[in-house]
């Protein structure tokens, strides 16, 4: 949704922003079905990768309760986020300690917090009337042109999720070695989550500013926004890397008092600071590329980097070379260096004039490139298909048939996941 939404808003085609939102809501609600089909089988999946039965059972309990929570103006989000965090802490205290509900109580509290966040934001939008310029009510247009949305969404999802999935897989692999390795991996993973928050903010800012500028045909502002976001991310990441590097022998005490885990964390943290810098640059440039509609390049880079190099190399170093999580993070550092080098090189060579033309096609302001130059005509067929918002509209009958089939397929996948879970759990017990 990001490039479509931000670029369309920047072009002042405000009514179309509401249509894109409607389309996104419908598609994401349908996407919950296959996600739920997988989450329902969490226990089965964890048992298959040799996790402890009790851990698998508790994870399944948490996921089942938390499943309902799956589904330019920044300060309201910041304030509501702070308020909901306070609500979340209070609800966790009530359900876990006062009601003695344990893990299930935590899941209920977190699910209620997510619902509270959505409700507070909705009430704020209605109160301030922020929707009036972009929301004209539900329209049949939201059922049209799902292909371009999904084409961009899959690439964006891959860019954002592959790194996170790699860390989670690393946790599974560490758990296969011993508890110390798993504990140390968990600490490093939490440090990574903390370190990425700051550059993630610049990534989002760059995404929005670049998208709005391209939609408004302000090529120079888009280029300047990309540079500013990257420089800010590099600056803050250097500070974070310095702090973590200087405190590597003690930082584990924030999470555990176990001396073995602390020593293991210190060993990995000795070469972790460069990873923070590369990761910050990669994250920020990734946001800029999503704002420019170039997420497909970032997605391919992430897939090849993490799954083509990072994980295979990390697994070999962890087990064959017996380096444990040190081997995993050496491979991830290598992977991140190569990815960052490629993405920075790609961004510096972007033809911003051509990207502005593509943005105008994407938001529906023009139906063909503004410039007949050779640079403006070398879009490949897939990319061009994703850019065209004014393609021939489907008939009412065809629309009902196709969207009905999509709904039926998603529900069938969910039903299959439920049946599979019931069958396997019956065989196990």
UniProtKB/TrEMBL annotation:
It comes from the Eukaryota. The keyword Nucleotidyltransferase does not apply. CDD domains: MATE_eukaryotic. It is found in: Membrane. The chain crosses the membrane at residues 20-49, 61-87, 93-125, 146-167, 187-208, 229-251, 271-292, 304-321, 327-348, 404-424. InterPro entries: MATE_euk, MATE_fam. This is Multidrug and toxin extrusion protein 1. The keyword Magnesium does not apply. Belongs to the multi antimicrobial extrusion (MATE) (TC 2.A.66.1) family. It is a multi-pass membrane protein. GO terms for biological process: xenobiotic detoxification by transmembrane export across the plasma membrane. It holds the Pfam family MatE. Keywords: Membrane, Transmembrane, Transmembrane helix. One of its GO terms (molecular function) is xenobiotic transmembrane transporter activity. GO terms for cellular component: membrane. It comes from Takifugu flavidus (sansaifugu).
């Amino acid at each position: 949704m990001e490039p479509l939404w931000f670029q369309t808003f920047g072009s002042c085609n405000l009514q179309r922003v509401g249509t894109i939102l409607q389309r996104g809501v419908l598609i994401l609600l349908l996407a919950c079905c296959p996600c739920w089909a997988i989450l329902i089988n969490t226990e089965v999946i964890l048992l298959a990768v040799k996790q402890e039965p009790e851990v698998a059972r508790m994870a399944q309990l948490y996921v089942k309760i938390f499943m309902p929570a799956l589904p330019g103006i920044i300060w309201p989000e910041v304030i509501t986020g702070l308020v909901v965090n306070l609500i979340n802490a209070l609800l966790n205290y009530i359900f876990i300690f006062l009601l003695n509900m344990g893990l299930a109580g935590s899941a209920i509290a977190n699910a209620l917090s997510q619902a509270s966040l959505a409700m507070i934001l909705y009430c704020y939008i209605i109160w301030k009337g922020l929707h009036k310029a972009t929301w004209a009510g539900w329209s049949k247009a939201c059922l049209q042109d799902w292909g371009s949305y999904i084409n961009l969404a899959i690439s964006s999802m891959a860019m954002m999720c592959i790194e996170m999935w790699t860390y989670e897989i690393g946790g599974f692999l560490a758990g296969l070695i011993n508890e110390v390795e798993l504990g140390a991996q968990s600490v490093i993973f939490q440090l990574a989550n903390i370190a990425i928050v700051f550059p993630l903010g610049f990534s989002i800012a760059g995404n929005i500013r670049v998208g709005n500028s391209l939609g408004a045909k302000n090529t120079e502002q888009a280029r300047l926004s990309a540079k500013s976001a990257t420089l800010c991310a590099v600056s803050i990441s250097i500070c974070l890397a310095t702090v973590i590097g200087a405190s590597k022998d003690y930082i584990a005490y924030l999470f555990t008092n176990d001396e073995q885990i602390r020593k293991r964390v210190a060993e990995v943290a000795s070469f972790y600071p460069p990873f923070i810098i590369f990761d910050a640059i990669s994250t920020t440039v990734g946001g800029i590329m999503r704002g420019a509609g170039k997420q497909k390049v970032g997605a391919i880079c992430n897939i090849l980097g993490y799954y083509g190099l990072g994980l295979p190399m990390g697994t070999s170093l962890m087990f064959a070379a017996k380096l444990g999580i040190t081997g995993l993070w050496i491979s991830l550092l290598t992977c991140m260096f190569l990815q960052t080098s490629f993405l920075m090189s790609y961004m510096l060579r972007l033809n911003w004039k051509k990207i502005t033309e593509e943005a105008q096609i994407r938001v529906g302001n023009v139906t063909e490139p503004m410039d007949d130059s050779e640079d403006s005509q070398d879009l490949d067929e897939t990319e061009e298909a994703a850019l065209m918002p004014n393609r021939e509209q489907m008939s009412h009958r065809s629309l009902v048939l196709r969207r009905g089939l999509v709904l039926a397929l998603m529900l069938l996948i969910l039903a299959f996941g439920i049946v599979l879970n019931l069958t396997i759990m019956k065989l196990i017990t």
